[in-house]
Amino acid sequence: MEERVISNWTSAAQNQTLVTEFLLTGLSNNPQTQLVLFVVFLVAYLLTLAGNLIIMVTIVHDRGLHTPMYFFLSNLSLIDICHSTVTVPKMLADFLSTEKTISFGGCVAQMFFLHLFTCTEIFLLTVMAYDRYVAICNPMHYLTVMNHKVCLILTGTIWLGGTVHSLALTGMTIKLPYCGPRKVDNFFCDVPPVIKLACTNTYVIEILIVSNSGLISVVCFVVLVVSYGVILVSLRNHFAEGQRKALSTCAAHLTVVTLFLGHCIFIYSRPSTSFAEDKIVSVFFTAVTPLLNPIIYTLRNEDMKRALHKLFGQKVNAEK
């Protein structure tokens, strides 16, 4: 259904635009540099896929990890795989191409799925903070409050919220007429650089984007910081071992939140004005953060490390 909606919107938009494809500026035009970047980002992408898939398989395999926290973590890994796949494969292909083009429909699809997974991940990180808050501040009622049904409802809600957000943002973007410049100043299609190419005044759209994406990012970031502030205060009453474990989990989560929401606030909390740092921040957002999440959550999490040792230990023994 989502693909049909995008197709209908694309057809309607192309009726009022002369642009059938866009040119992406990419990260570099130097052949040698592009080859090096291709190798670097190919390795990073493969590690992203492998790391997040391992987390998902480990959580499914180990019954000790069948808890709300790891249920949400497996969802985070799934979103990270989807999020990086929206932009990185196209970027890799462009490193080997002389002309970095993307069709109008492909550009629309990239914007839609990029914002779908981005917004869903923001909501998921907020839900994960709430999960930690209940687990640490109200441990006696944790499994009652965060039961299986509640987890499923929360997950469905965040995906629905991400879809509505993305449809609204993409819809505003493709209704604009595009009849002149077609060079997108980035290595993927995103709303801010694309609407700059519209042959009409986009000030109102830019304000709506800031009030939509920017506000979501800022509000969720504030909620997350306040939540973890409350959690840290409540940790003073825990025993040393439990306190250390909870602090480790919260530190991992805060690291992910800072890396991810930092980009969103930087890009979407201002009108469509280009900065030299935009591409660097976008690279970190699309290619680096999805790779860091598995590392952060496995290296700082004793339960995950135990489950990984158990899983791979069983495979080694089975092969023997």
Briefly note the structural class of the backbone: mainly alpha
Morphology: globular
Provide the gyration radius in Å.
21 Å
As a percent range, the share of strand residues is under 5%
The first-to-last residue Cα distance is 48 Å
Descriptive terms for the model:
320 residues; mainly alpha; Rhopdopsin 7-helix transmembrane proteins; 11 helices; 76% helix; cell membrane; Olfact_rcpt; transmembrane helix; GPCR_Rhodpsn
Topology:
Layout: H1 2-14, E1 21-24, H2 31-61, H3 68-95, E2 101-103, H4 104-137, H5 142-145, H6 148-174, E3 183-184, H7 191-195, H8 203-234, H9 240-268, H10 278-299, H11 302-319
Parallel strand pairs: 1-3
Antiparallel strand pairs: 1-2
Helix pairs in contact: 1-4, 2-3, 2-10, 2-11, 3-4, 3-10, 4-6, 4-8, 4-9, 6-8, 8-9, 9-10
Q: Could you please describe the fold and organization of this structure?
A:
- This protein is mostly helical.
- The chain has a single domain (2-315), classed as Rhodopsin 7-helix transmembrane proteins (Rhopdopsin 7-helix transmembrane proteins, Up-down Bundle).
- Helices cover 76% and strands 3% of the residues.
- The protein is built from eleven helices and three strands; from the N terminus they run αβααβαααβααααα.
- It has helices at 2-14, 31-61, 68-95, 104-137, 142-145, 148-174, 191-195, 203-234, 240-268, 278-299, 302-319; strands spanning 21-24, 101-103, 183-184.
- A three-stranded mixed sheet has the order 2-1-3.
- Helix 2 (31-61) crosses helix 11 and helix 6 (148-174) packs antiparallel against helix 8.
- The longest helix is centred in the middle third of the chain and has 34 residues, at 104-137.
- The radius of gyration is 21 Å and the shape is globular.
